[in-house]
Amino acid sequence: MKDLAIRDDMAPTVSLLYSAAEENMTRLFSIVNHMTLEQLDYKGRSKTKNSTAQLLHHIANVDIRWVWRIKENRIPEHIIKLYGPMINENGCLPEVKGQPLHYYLNRLQHVLTELRNVCVTLKETDVNRELSYDKDTATIRWGIWHMADHNRYHQAHIEALKAEWRKDITENAL
């Protein structure tokens, strides 16, 4: 049976939100499992789409920033340097390629571990706390939900790239 777990080590609402983020991360791992470097760097037939590598990098980049917002309501400079910019000078996802799958999965697992570590410290009332977000504010509740939702959103892009890849491989083999 599928369900979102309520963990004993987290406040109920925090646990539910964390469980959604964890479930989507697990699903993402299963979607990209066994992708080759060529598949990770594939940008579609037109070579203009964001690659799976770019999307995985982007998910980790967005999520680690949320973890730090939740932790300290600010993103430390060392995290910004480590994860790089969110977008390039053209407003697009930065070009990333040439890294094996385990590189991205390790980063994503690290983000999930950091999220779990912060979630166990949150009380039920903490989910209402406002954080700085995109020239506005958002609650911790919304931030954790956004992590889960954003991950799932990009899974659809990755699935479309995989389908296009399979079609290209089949057509090129003929």
TrEMBL record:
Ranges for domain DinB-like: 22-158
Domain of life: Bacteria
Name of a matching Pfam family: DinB_2
InterPro entries, per the entry: DinB-like, DinB/YfiT-like
Coiled-coil region(s): none
Protein known as: DinB-like domain-containing protein
Source species of the chain: Bacillus atrophaeus (strain 1942)
Lineage start: Bacteria, Bacillati, Bacillota, Bacilli, Bacillales
